[in-house]
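Priority: medium. Attachment 1 of 2:
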């Protein structure tokens, strides 16, 4: 295992050192504090954590809140806040609440990180230009024009060189063994020394010996407690989300989130006590660790030891790094944190407003306020979705139909009332309630309308497809406030699943047609009116007569799409075969020549009784035996093929039979001619009943005709 983990730990170490120094600069903390957090994050969180590949250390996403704490309380008090935040994380881990952190909307998290990235980029840009960052992002933006005019040329050149190396380095495959951040800082430092540029050097004087012990913060304790909670929650959520993301990157043991949160608490407690930055799981270092081939937590732990050795032995070398180069590195990281790819992924779920509002609030107002605003907007959008209701009113042949779908709460009462007002008094109405919840305000509105409608001579037929919300409320039965789990809609369920205990089986067809006329006919009547004069299907669909096979269900097709032929075993008798069968031949002829279909599909299915009968001839079914002679080619092909290991004999014969029927179709001259001309396509499908999955069967090269086996 170590032969994979040792090289991976060295790669992560080379990435961690420059990033830790840069985050220290962005946080307004001593440079050694970032190295302390990297060491503790690697050794403590790596050894105790719930993920075997996650790498912890100082995170850019926390730099903004740390900088604010340093500004308000001072560095030593900030270390105490980090220590207390670690103790809180330990407590939360003991109570196993880690999964609750995953309930935070990713749109808020990504928006927060993007906002932090903007703030970091604006602040570090001032350092690159030779100035000092202001206290807020807006002030940095307002001061930027003057800073650009009065820039420090050497600092700008160093920053530009650092960013160019970062952009170009990853595009050079042979150089990828050296991490881009390390290469950028080394090249910028060597260039500055060689050209004699006047730059600000990184000050690591005293190394770890310069670190001071934490002290209790002074001031309003309410604010201090809020700061502790903020650091604990932000670091915890980022760690857990990174942990979940890390599980998708490797095939090793899955992460234990509660153990990870406990380990992060221990790391923050120790880092704060030693004068280090807050620790959290970091996506960049974790991704680097996985890509470098790490197999166990030893890679993370060893990278912490390498950082410790570097800080002790290479402090003079680290001191050669220009502060402007570190600022340029952070500027690059800040810009990359504004990941528009995340925003694009959120757009399909309608969560882009959460992302951009959170980002804007973090930049304009502040980190904590931005997070609260983002969470509030996410809650409002979620509430709106959960209480969304659709009300459709239709009229057909003098009868009205109202379909209510969703969660029927007081928020949907205005829409419901407006729709119900369109129905004239005394009219007969079919009311379909597809609702998973109904509150008292909605019930009162609906019930009052029903009573008024019946008072004026109308009739209301109410059909509830979920729990009996309206019926229970109308009868005075207690209605539980929780949403009911959605039940299957009725249109595709077998009669047995919808039949009431008192309904006789003999009336299934009658009841079914009555339901069709009441529910479905009004919907499909306009379509069928257009189709009444002529059919123009695009597919000839040949399938089995098995009662479990419903082509329109698993092809999502409607009236006029499929010209369907069903028979025992989805067989296609060969052209001119004996005994003669004109039924299938007539259907093929009519579909191809009169309807001009473009595709013929043969669809078989699992557990086919006809194929089982081919393997063992049925007794007492003479007509079936005669019909199954048309499946002898399939049986001969099945015997000739080598058996597969993935399925049993019956399943293999069912699939072989489908492919053989395509060969039988090609014996029809009109089919073969149109296929050669590219005007007709033959396809094979297979429906697995047990899994409700449809498979397209790839056809092999066309085979020579299989001779029909001799009887007897």
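Attachment 2 of 2:
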């Amino acid at each position: 295992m170590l032969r994979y983990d040792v090289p991976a730990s060295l790669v992560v170490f080379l990435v961690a050192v420059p990033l830790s120094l840069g985050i220290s600069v962005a946080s307004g903390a001593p440079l050694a504090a970032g190295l302390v957090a990297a060491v503790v994050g690697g050794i403590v969180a790596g050894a105790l954590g719930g993920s075997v590949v996650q790498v912890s250390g100082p995170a850019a996403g926390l730099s903004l809140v740390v900088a604010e704490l340093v500004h308000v309380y001072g560095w030593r008090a900030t270390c105490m806040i980090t220590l207390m935040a670690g103790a809180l994380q330990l407590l939360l881990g003991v109570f196993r609440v880690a999964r609750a952190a995953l309930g935070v909307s990713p749109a808020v998290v990504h928006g927060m990180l993007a906002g932090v990235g903007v703030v970091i980029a604006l602040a570090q840009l001032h350092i690159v230009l030779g100035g000092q960052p202001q206290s807020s992002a807006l002030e940095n933006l307002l001061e930027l024009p003057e800073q650009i005019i009065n820039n420090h040329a050497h600092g700008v050149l160093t920053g530009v060189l650092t960013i160019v190396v970062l952009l170009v380095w990853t595009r050079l495959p042979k150089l990828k063994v050296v991490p881009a951040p390390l290469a950028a800082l080394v090249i910028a430092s060597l260039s500055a020394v060689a050209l004699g540029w006047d730059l600000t050097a990184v000050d690591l004087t005293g190394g770890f010996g310069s670190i001071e012990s934490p002290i209790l913060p002074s001031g309003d304790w309410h604010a201090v407690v809020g700061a502790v909670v903020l650091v604990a929650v932000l670091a915890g959520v980022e760690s857990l989300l990174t942990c979940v993301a890390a599980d998708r990157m490797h095939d090793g043991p899955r992460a234990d989130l509660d153990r990870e949160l406990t380990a992060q608490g221990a790391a923050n407690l120790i880092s704060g006590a030693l004068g280090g930055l807050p620790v959290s799981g970091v996506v960049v270092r974790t991704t680097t660790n996985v890509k470098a081939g790490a197999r166990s937590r030893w890679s993370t732990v060893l990278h912490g030891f390498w950082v410790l050795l570097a800080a002790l032995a290479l402090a003079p070398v680290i001191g050669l790094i220009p502060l402007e180069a570190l600022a340029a590195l952070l500027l690059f990281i800040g810009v990359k944190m504004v990941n528009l790819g995340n925003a694009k992924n959120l757009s399909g779920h309608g969560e882009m407003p959460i992302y951009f509002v959170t980002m804007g609030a973090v930049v304009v107002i502040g980190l904590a306020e931005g997070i609260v605003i983002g969470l509030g907007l996410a809650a409002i959008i979620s509430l709106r979705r959960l209480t969304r209701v659709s009300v459709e009113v239709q009229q057909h042949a003098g009868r009205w139909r109202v379909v209510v779908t969703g969660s029927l709460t007081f928020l949907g009462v205005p829409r419901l009332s407006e729709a119900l007002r369109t129905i004239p008094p005394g009219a007969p109405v079919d009311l379909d309630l597809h609702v998973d919840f109904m509150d008292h305000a909605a019930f009162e509105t609906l019930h009052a309308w029903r009573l008024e409608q019946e008072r004026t001579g109308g009739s209301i037929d109410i059909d509830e497809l979920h729990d009996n919300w309206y019926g229970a409320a109308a009868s005075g039965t207690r209605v539980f406030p929780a949403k009911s789990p959605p039940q299957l809609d009725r249109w595709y369920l077998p009669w047995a699943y919808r039949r009431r205990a008192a309904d006789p089986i003999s009336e299934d067809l009658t009841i079914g047609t009555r339901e069709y006329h009441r529910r479905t006919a009004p919907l499909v009547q306009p379509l069928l009116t257009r189709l009444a004069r002529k059919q123009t299907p695009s597919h000839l669909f040949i399938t089995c007569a098995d009662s479990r096979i419903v082509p329109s269900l698993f092809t999502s097709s409607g009236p006029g799409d499929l010209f369907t032929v069903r028979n025992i075993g989805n067989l296609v008798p060969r052209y001119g075969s004996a005994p003669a069968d004109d039924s299938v031949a007539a259907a093929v002829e009519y579909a191809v020549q009169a309807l001009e279909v473009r595709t013929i599909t043969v669809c078989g299915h699992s557990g086919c009784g006809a194929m089982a009968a081919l393997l063992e001839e049925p007794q007492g079914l003479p007509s079936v035996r005669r019909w199954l002679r048309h499946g002898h080619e399939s049986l001969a092909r099945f015997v000739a093929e080598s058996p597969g290991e993935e399925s049993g004999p019956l399943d293999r014969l069912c699939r072989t039979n489908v492919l053989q029927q395509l060969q039988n179709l090609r014996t029809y001259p009109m089919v073969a001619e149109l296929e050669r001309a590219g005007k007709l396509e033959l396809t094979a499908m297979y429906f697995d009943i047990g899994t409700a999955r449809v498979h397209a069967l790839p056809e092999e090269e066309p085979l020579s005709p299989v001779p029909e086996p001799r009887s007897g």
